[in-house]
Amino acid sequence: MAGSLLGAALVVTDAYGGGFSRGTADTDILFEPGDFNLRAGTSVVVPSQKFSAGTDPALIGTNYLGTYVIPSTAVKFAIGENLACAGTYTEPFGAKSEYESAFGLAGKVSEDLRLSEFGATCAVFFDAGPGRFAVLGGAFVEQVHYDLDALPVPMGGLPLNVSLEGRDEGWRAGLAYEIPEIAFRAQLLYRSGTSYGAAGTASSPAFMIPGNTLPAIGMGELPQSVELKVQSGIAPGWLAFGSVKWMDWSVNETLTVSVPLAGIDTPNEYYWRDGWTVTAGIGHAFNEQVSGAISLQWDRGVSTGFDFRTDKWLLAGGANIKDARGGELRLGAGLGYMTSADVTKGQNAGISVDAGWAGILSATYSITW
């Protein structure tokens, strides 16, 4: 019942992390009872944050953030009593912007960064005292997809379209201890960072060649992370939970997009600091079929003055409903708050945004055999 108490609320909080964070691989399925478990779901995030100052009056009062969807799928197989392995899929990072008027020197009209993660993780369990100890380890493949539509000032405002793809591999490892009788679990999980040299094409009528298309490349770094999660029963039918997550966002200095044959080199300037995310919540089982949870999350902004990624808050809640077929439906909702931000450094200095809001909805269904 512990997983049921907090599952939907945590799906929502995972969808609203700092920096470029989006989904998290569902490795918690390794701790679910049963020989075979399948869990799949989707979160939809609708953010809004409007420009309040800048050099282009056409942007003032307009929202620049795009709606995005985060899928998550996990399948677990138990191999005896002391070994379980899971395959997972999610989109761990991303950023989506859409502008009413061409933004900045790069003349951005829309920009979409998405990363897909395919992972496999196993847990080995050992009896220890009143509970059991677990060692987790696994690997993942991460694929990056990047699309840019722009009207760059240096190109005379002629349209430019860039599409890039790349991949890298990483690994995760962790330790956990749980006492199922009191719904206690403490887990420390590490995820490695990734590096990209994405490749693709750039198209523009400014390229005076047949097809108007040239090779393009992109380069960037994504962070490693460490997360500590703790939960425990505090009374019959009640569960408290919390987590602290560190992400090495200081590796993200620039994301550079280049078209070498055209002499185009456009770095997105970030120079972020490390990120910290703190979550706390409580769950309650109303009966054997229905439970729910509520949580509050704070994310320390990673911005150092080059962009708008300042502090965020999230209030999230979820309900879990078990059906007669042995399945479980998790429904979650959240309201996020983004603090106002001023760009004080770099090529976009002088641009500001007001505080903003984000609405989040999620639905997940799981079944156990």
TrEMBL record:
Membrane topology: Multi-pass membrane protein
Cellular localisation: Cell outer membrane
Keyword match Membrane: yes
Spans through the membrane: none
Recorded GO CC terms: cell outer membrane
Gene3D superfamilies: Outer membrane protein transport protein (OMPP1/FadL/TodX)
Keyword Nucleotide-binding assigned: no
Residues of the signal peptide: none
Entry similarity comment: Belongs to the OmpP1/FadL family.
Name used for this protein in its record: Aromatic hydrocarbon degradation protein
Organism field: Chelativorans petroleitrophicus
